[in-house]
Amino acid sequence: MVTGIEAAGGGQGNGIRKRSCFCSKEDFLPEESFKSWGNYVHALANTKTRLTDRILARSMDHQELEQMRARSNNQMKKTLNWWDLIWFGIGAVMGAGIFVLTGQAARNDAGPAVVISYFISGVSALLSVLCYTEFSVELPVAGGSFSYLRVELGDFVAYIAAGNILFEYVVAGASVARSWTSYFATLCNHNPNDFRINVPALADNFNHLDPIAVVISIVVCIGAALSMKASSRFNSVTTIVHLVVLVFIFITGMTKANPANFTTNFLPFGFRGVLKASAVLFFAYVGFDGVATLGEEIKNPGRDIPIGLIGSMLVTITTYCVLSATLCLMQPYSQIDADASFTMAFQAAGMNWAKYIVALGAIKGMTTVLLANLIAQARYFTHIGRTHMAPAILASIHPKTGTPVNATVIMTVANCLVALFTSLDVLANLLSISTLFIFSLVSLALIVRRYYVTGETSTSDRNKLIIFLTLIVGSSIATAVYWVLSQGWIGYVVTGVIWFAATLGLQLTLKQAKKPKLWGVPLVPWLPSASIAFNVFILGSIDVPSFIRFAIWTLVLLVYYIFVALHASYDAARETDRVEAQASQASQATNMEAGTS
């Protein structure tokens, strides 16, 4: 692990101290506020002033692109192109979700119309992809959504959002690692717990230790830390093999297709069932946001990112729709197994051997999801470390590999600890609303980016923007609440009219203050506004305990922010201001000398 890094902030400078093999307090808290207990007490005494400063603070594009990167001392290697991004996008999204979620949605909610559910949730995900794409092209940095929110909605909102998404990344990584063991056991004709170590002394749901999950996580970590290009090649090959397996499942399944299974009672649960299923199936599309963290390693962001992100999502939507249709053609929806839908469908058709193909496809899919998950975690954490909202040691980029080794190792340790002890049942219940929360914020931030520029937008236009955004978000929340509480339709008319009027008012009464330089979302503000509405609607389908977990974790983040992150980021921001002021003075002095000459 690279240690001894001096990141800009708190008077620390930009150089690299002599490296050592051990970490010191300076590696984690180099800022002035933590130099001594006296300094820390003084910082706490000024918490109110500092909190006011940071809540209102917004970063700038050039700060994210230049100054934040400089704090890593070394640069990530630009080795990726659009081809790599397409396979990263598919590999990050297309894991075991198609095998796990399709049967549940078809059997319990949508019937054969699960195909429509996959399409609706895919369109919703595509709207978020478009918003991410514009930001990624304009701000190709490792922070992804964290950077986008810092620039448009401020430090505090970005911190809360990023803290939640990192928690979800850890939980998702641990869950996929334990699922990897389960599918591997299927290939070996064993029960998953046969490969786990039972420790009766530990509490239930934490007493089946999973060493295979730890081993596969460590192997993925080594690959991700050593070389991004090698990781990309491995991901491309594995994802292509995964798609070949899915094509094989499609072709084999179609040989047992019965059109009557699909056409008879196509909408058994009505359109409400289709929407209910689409809310669940949306999570089969989650993961593309991690591709946005690869911005610093892409050769031509303006060309490669739109092709990679949008192209991979279109492939994923098509694949999910085709495979779900195949399943419903093989069996009547009422006979589909909710837990092992494809395996049992092939078994019912007399092809018991196909379960091994399904397991192999799931394992390959989960391996690429693990890789993409870890790569995204590390880059998120690296950029947060650059801002000093997380320990500065995480900002380090290894000079030889050009990868964030420190962040990769630390996130792997977290994944392994959770995956080793925690059962899949507990992990499934821990997945929170963070992803949808951030997707909504990014769409909101895109509208802010287009219609508000500090120092240029008038107070009147700013107030109009706030009103319209409040109405868009408020009507979206009202729609989600009405969906949960009522079976009627009148409420949708009211909330829909408000959403439409607010979006139309935004388009007609406000002029866009900033145009994208290279690539932009079309039909602004309609598409990002629709993205907000879709994401908030899906939030309404999530159970109450998930919101409670979200609130508890957010409270933990707030405690850390008040006592550590606030003061570290405040010192780093003051150092940045000082460096900029010195650079400005030096530039003025140079100009004056040139004029005198």
UniProtKB/TrEMBL annotation:
Span of domain Cationic amino acid transporter C-terminal: 519-569
Q: Does the keyword Nucleotide-binding apply?
A: no
Chief site of localization: membrane
- Mind listing the GO biological process terms from this record? amino acid transport
Q: Which UniProt keywords apply?
A: Amino-acid transport, Membrane, Transmembrane, Transmembrane helix, Transport
Q: Which GO terms describe its cellular component?
A: plasma membrane
GO molecular function annotations of the record? L-glutamate transmembrane transporter activity; L-lysine transmembrane transporter activity
Name one matching Pfam family.
AA_permease_C
Q: Which family does it belong to?
A: Belongs to the amino acid-polyamine-organocation (APC) superfamily. Cationic amino acid transporter (CAT) (TC 2.A.3.3) family.
Q: What is this protein called?
A: Cationic amino acid transporter C-terminal domain-containing protein
Provenance organism:
Prunus persica (Peach)
